[in-house]
Design goal:
heterodimer; A: 90% helix; B: 258 residues; alpha/beta; seven-stranded mixed beta sheet
């Protein structure tokens, strides 16, 4: 159990570092890094605070502490993926609309030039 | 493709010239082998109607061949897929005030000689969409086995949804009037649009009809739909149909949202 918590602690720290480095290098925009930082922070806190993890395990009725940790992590990341799917869908819609608008504006510009 | 290269040559479709103005749109992707003859055939059968080829970012000579054949070209800045490509044509036609738009595929499968019949049916019935169908009358048109099974499957699925039978739900040879144009310029499926477009129309209580048309084998090039992709097509369209049935239209959309 302890070694598992050590592993998740290290993974959380690595994730935090990766996100911060990516934000600093402008690979991830700040608004999209918040979800990752919150998820990594929550994982880190749970890994470091065994009583909190035990309390959640008792509250949820999950029979096993490591399983509780992985269920929580899985849930958090599923919510994040869902959120990003919504964002990507909006971006795709906007992208298509923009590409069509650019094509139509170019087209009208050329029509005006020909008149 | 650089902007200056795309802007060279070709005429421009002007604002609609009358209350019954027709625009023929031809979505095309890498169809340099077929597009010239497609445009010439359209101009021969409907000489007064402007022809607009919407180029979905071809990397061959589609644009040049289309312009040389007498079409105007709307070149998209990047690849959008068939639905995004067709919708760009609908949007432009709507903004330019056209009353009717008929879509003809750029691969030479559709017979331009059938365009007048589609237009006549649009005008005489007042329905929002007319589908050029291979199966209204026996005319020798054939489809592959997988596509044939898909068509039968979607006939069954669509029958209760649309409230009437549709014989050729995957046909891309369609004409629409301005009411449908207004709807499609705001909301149109991005991939495999034909079947989902019928559901979009049904949600607005619009009507469609089918007229018999001939279809030929592709004049050049290869179809992008392989047997494996057909299964993906069926799953994708099926999901799209049910999503369109359940669709919530209250979500704020971009002004030109697809």
């Amino acid at each position: 159990m302890d070694s598992l918590l050590h592993v998740t602690t290290v993974l959380s720290v690595v994730l935090l570092a990766m996100v911060l480095i990516s934000v600093r290098r402008a690979h991830i925009r700040v608004e999209y890094s918040v979800s990752w930082l919150l998820a990594a922070g929550a994982m880190l806190l749970l890994s470091l605070s065994r009583p909190a993890l035990e309390a959640i395990r008792r509250w949820t009725g999950v029979p096993d502490t490591p399983l509780t940790l992985f269920l929580m992590a899985g849930t958090v990341f599923l919510v994040m993926f869902f959120r990003f799917s919504i964002i990507i869908s909006h971006l795709r819609d906007d992208n298509v609309a923009l590409a069509q608008r650019v094509a139509m504006l170019e087209y009208r510009l050329r029509s005006l030039e020909q008149e | 493709m650089p902007l200056d290269q795309r802007a060279k040559g070709g005429g421009a479709v002007k604002r609609a010239s009358g209350p019954d103005a027709l625009l023929v749109i031809v979505p095309a992707l890498n169809e340099e082998g077929a597009i010239g003859e497609v445009v010439r055939q359209i101009r021969q059968h409907v000489p007064g109607a402007p022809v607009l080829v919407i180029d979905d970012c071809s990397d061959d000579g589609t644009i040049a061949v289309a312009r040389a054949a007498g079409a105007d070209v709307l070149p998209l800045a990047h690849h959008l897929g068939l639905g995004g490509c067709v919708q760009a044509g609908y949007k432009l036609a709507y903004e330019l005030g056209f009353e009717y738009v008929i879509r003809v595929d750029g691969d030479g499968q559709h017979d331009a000689g059938d365009i007048p019949a589609i237009l006549e049916r649009l005008k005489s019935t007042g329905c929002e969409m007319v589908i050029g169908s291979r199966f209204v009358e026996e005319n020798g048109s054939t489809t592959g086995m997988v596509r044939g099974l898909g068509i039968r499957f979607f006939r069954m699925v669509l029958r209760p949804i649309l409230g009437k039978a549709v014989r050729d739900p995957t046909s891309g040879f369609v004409g629409v009037n301005r009411r449908a144009l207004e709807v499609f310029s705001r909301s149109f499926p991005l991939e495999y649009p034909e079947i989902e477009a019928l559901v979009v129309l049904q949600r607005r209580r619009f009507h469609f009809e089918e007229v018999p048309v001939k279809m030929h084998a592709r004049a050049a090039g290869k179809s992008s739909i392989t047997a494996r992709k057909s299964l993906y097509y069926i799953a994708h369209v099926l999901l799209g149909v049910f999503v369109n049935i359940l669709k919530y239209d209250g979500r704020p959309r971009p002004r030109d949202g697809g």
